[in-house]
Amino acid sequence: MKKLIILLPAIAFILHSCDLETNPYEEISVDELFSDPESIETATIGNYALLKGDKGFDGWVDDLHRISEYAGDNVSLSGGTTDHLFFLYNYQSIKTNSRVERFWRNSYKIAVGCNVIIEKIIEGESVETDQLLGENYYLRALTYFQMGNVFGRPYNQGVSNLSVPLKLTSSITDRPDRHTVEQVYTQVIKDLEKAESLMTVNKGASFASKEAAQALLSRVYLYKEDNIKAQEYADKVITSGNYSLLSTDQFSKMNTLIPNQNQEAIFAVTLSSATDLLGGFDDWFTIGSFYANVEGKGWGEMYASRTYLDLIEKNPTDARKSFIEPQPEKDGDQNDIPAVYWVNDEYTYEFRRTSESGGVTTFEDNGTIYTVESEIVDGKTVYYFNGPNGRQDVIKGVDLKKRNGHPKFYILKASLQENDIHLWSPMVSRLAEMYLNKAESLAKRGMDQLALDNVNIIRERAGIPIYTLANIPSGKNVLDIVLEERRLELAYEGHRRYDVYRNGRAMNRKYPGTHLNGTNAFLEIPSTHPRVVEFIPEQQIILQPSLIQND
C-alpha cells in the first residue's frame, strides 16, 4: 500500500535566473516521488520552502531570527506588545510561546522531509541525485544545529546536558526523547561531512553546496571549541575561490542585493519580489517591519541598542553604519534640530535641544543654562557638560523622533532587498563570517597577530582603521577585539545571543529599552542562567510526556 505525502510545498527552480518561485502541488505517492531526479528535486525544494514559509514571514527562519536576535544586546524595544516575541526579548520566558512552538514544529517538518529523501535515495546513482541527497543532509544538519542552540545549553557547559530529540527517520512511530548536547553535535557534524562529500554542484547561494556545508562545519566546530577544525573549514571556504568580500560601497548596500548577486553569500534563505510578500499587509509582518517603518509600512518599534550604537559610532566612516538609520525631528522649515543627548543612571534617554552663539553650544534645563564642552580623547572629540552631579558625557547631534521616549534608530539590514520595502533573504553563511571564525579560533590558541590579521580584513572592508598588537585598547585582549568585530559585522544576522553565551560571558543589557520594565527585569544575564535556553514547548510535552522540560 502506497504512503502519501500530503500537500508538500515545492519551489520551481528557474535554471537561467536561479530564482525561487513558490508552487504547491497536490498529493504524490512516494513511489512516484522518487521515480526520477526531477521529482526528487521537487521534494527537496519543498524542504527549502519550509525555511521561509508560505508567505515569506511565517517560516522556520522568521522565528529563528526573532529567537536568536531579540535576546541579544543589539536591539532595544520601545514599548510593549501582545506578540509572544516580547517574552523572547525580555527573558520572561513562557512555556506556551507561540513563536517557539512554531519554530519547533517547523524544524521537525524540515527534518522529517529530509529524512524521507535520505531514506529513499540510493547514493552513487548519479551526480544529480547525490547532489540532492547532500542538500537534504545539509538542511537536516542546519535544522538540528539551530534547534540545539535554542533548546540546548552551550557545548562547554556540559556535553551531557539535554538538547533536542534527533528524529532521523520518517516513521510516525519514531518519537525519540531528548538527546544530549554531545549527541546532537555528533549527528550535525556527521550530516555535514556527508553533505560535503556528496555535493559537487554549486547552484548559487539560494541552495546548499559543498562550501555551505564547510561554512556551517566551521561554525559548529567553533561552538564546540574545536578551534583547529573551525579554522580548517573556514580556510576551505576562503580558499575555494568561489567567494569574495563585497567592496566597501557594495557592502553598505548589501541588504538590497538578492543572494545570487552577493559574491560573499554562501547560503541564504531566499525570498523574491516576484513571489513573496505579495499581500496588501505582508510588509507589516516581516522581520524588517519590526525594525523600521519604510514608506509608511512597518511597525518600526525595535531599534538599535545604545551599546551597539556606541560601538559602531567609534568610527564615523564605518560602512556598517549604513544599516542604521536615525529618524531626525524637523523644525517648521524641515531642517534638523541641533541637540545633545545621553543615557542617565536609570538607563533612559535624555534629549536637550541646543543653541549656537559665537561657536559656543548651550542648552537650557530647568532654568539653568549649560555649556557643551569638548576634549580630545584617543584622537576623538568627546562632548560633555558639567551638571549638578558633575561631568556628563553627551552625544552632540540632532533631535530624533521618539516612541515612548526611545529615539528611533531604525535597522535596515532586514529591509529593501530589490528596493522592495521589507523584503529580505536572511543570511545563513557568508564569507565575512569565515574570516571571523578563523580569527576567533586563532585568538583562542594564542596566535594574536594572525587573529588580528583576519579581523583587519573585515575592518579594512568596513573602511575603518586596523588594529595592531600595540594599539589594542587598555583592558582588552585580542579575543575581546574579535568578538567586538563579530558583533559589529554580523549584527542582525542571528549570531550575537550564541556568541556571548558560548564564550562564557554575560549579556549586558544596561541600556534603554522596555526589557527593563517591571520588577524582575534582567540588566545582565550570566551564561549559566536557566533562560539562556528556551523552554521546550508545553504542547510538545503534553503530546510526549517523556520529554524533559528545561529548568
Report on the architecture of this protein:
The protein is an alpha+beta fold and 551 residues long. The protein has two domains: 4-278 and 426-543, Alpha Horseshoe (Serine Threonine Protein Phosphatase 5, Tetratricopeptide repeat); 338-399, no CATH class. It has helices spanning 30-33, 37-52, 60-69, 85-90, 98-120, 127-151, 181-198, 210-224, 227-238, 248-251, 287-291, 306-312, 431-443, 448-462, 478-490, 496-502, 538-543, and strands at 4-5, 11-13, 20-22, 28-29, 75-77, 265-268, 302-304, 324-326, 338-343, 349-353, 355-357, 360-365, 368-377, 380-387, 390-398, 402-403, 406-407, 409-411, 427-430, 507-508, 524-525. The strands form eight sheets. The protein has a seven-stranded antiparallel β-sheet, with no helix packed on it. A hairpin with a 5-residue loop joins β9 and β10 (349-353). The relative contact order is 0.13. The model is unreliable at 1-28 (pLDDT under 50).
Secondary structure topology:
Layout: E1 4-5, E2 11-13, E3 20-22, E4 28-29, H1 30-33, H2 37-52, H3 60-69, E5 75-77, H4 85-90, H5 98-120, H6 127-151, H7 181-198, H8 210-224, H9 227-238, H10 248-251, E6 265-268, H11 287-291, E7 302-304, H12 306-312, E8 324-326, E9 338-343, E10 349-353, E11 355-357, E12 360-365, E13 368-377, E14 380-387, E15 390-398, E16 402-403, E17 406-407, E18 409-411, E19 427-430, H13 431-443, H14 448-462, H15 478-490, H16 496-502, E20 507-508, E21 524-525, H17 538-543
Antiparallel strand pairs: 1-4, 2-3, 5-7, 6-19, 8-18, 9-10, 9-15, 11-12, 12-13, 13-14, 14-15, 16-17, 20-21
Helix pairs in contact: 2-5, 2-6, 3-5, 5-6, 6-7, 6-8, 7-8, 8-9, 8-13, 9-13, 13-14, 13-15, 14-15
